[in-house]
Amino acid sequence: MATHRTKMLIVGSGPAGLSAAIYGARAMMEPIVVQGLQPGGQLTITTDVENYPGFKDVIQGPWLMQEMQAQAEHVGTRMMWDTIVSVDIENGPPFRAVGDSGDEYIGDTLVIATGASAKWLGVPGEQELGGKGVSACATCDGFFYRGKKVAVIGGGNTAVEEALYLTNHSDDVTLIHRRDELRAEKILQERLFKSDKISTMWNKTVERFEGDPAGGGLTHLVLRDTVTGETSNLEVDGAFVAIGHAPATELFKGKLAMDESGYLLVEPGTPKTAVPGVFACGDVMDHTYRQAVTAAGTGCMAALDAERFLATLEFAKEEAEAAE
Q1: In the chain, which end has fewer C-beta atoms inside a 10 angstrom radius, N or C?
Q2: From 82, 108, 140, 281, the catalytic residue
Q3: What are the residue ranges spanned by the domains of the chain?
Q4: pLDDT digit string (tens) for 31-56?
Q5: 121: which residues sit within 8 A by CB, 6+ positions away?
Q6: How far apart are CA 186 and CA 164, in angstroms?
Q7: Is 134-241 assigned to CATH 3.40.630.30?
Q8: Is residue 140 flagged as an active site residue?
Q9: pTM: predicted TM-score of the whole model, two decimal places
């Protein structure tokens, strides 16, 4: 077991965490990134990325994260293969965290970039056809289904927003919901029902996704009627599971303020939490946009604010010493 000290401790290694690391390292803060259970974040399970600025061709998510990590390390970031299992932020700064390895990490500032993950249905074919017709992000993957038939599974705001977004690419969008009414906000429902590109299937659940993972990908959905129990098939080229996301905030329950869905609350327009010196960035605090580029932006903001926080502490210390 060892103790690692840094001016900026970053928990999470997706676009938010690595962007914070790049900016923090360039500010001579010698950041430490504890990578967690999924190094690189959700992009490591995303194949084609076509909307990250700076690349005219389709790039691979894992490659992009490797490049971000290489850049972070090049400018002075230390990457740690560990998973944080407990944190002490009540008595900081400095803030203390303990890894699954038993190592202790001490940071004068703490940047939380643990991200969020899409909720899945957990039915056969879902994971096997992931990236091959099955997705959890229309704004990420909708472009690949231009002019094709697609389905969205869900009944809340996320599902309706995804269905509406997909009409930019498809004239044949089907919303599948397990009940006979939506949970989405009324204004979203009104927009949905007015669209001549969207049809709705009520009282239906997806039993399984069918297709060829090694070949053409998804071909159809097997649906079950929640009232009659009857099954039917729906041929689609793409299906988007839109039943919400779960932020990785279990570590911080009772320690930091969260909304009803578990996302960390920050000062509007900033990554600042209610605890001075603790910052949250990326999908762990953003349930609206959930894009790699917005996560990277908030990671930058967290690093800049962390640098300012430390400068303020140092100035206060110098003032106190001068007054003695």
Answers
A1: C
A2: 140
A3: 3-118+245-323, 134-241
A4: 999 998 778 887 776 667 878 999 98
A5: 153, 206, 241, 243
A6: 14
A7: no
A8: yes
A9: 0.77
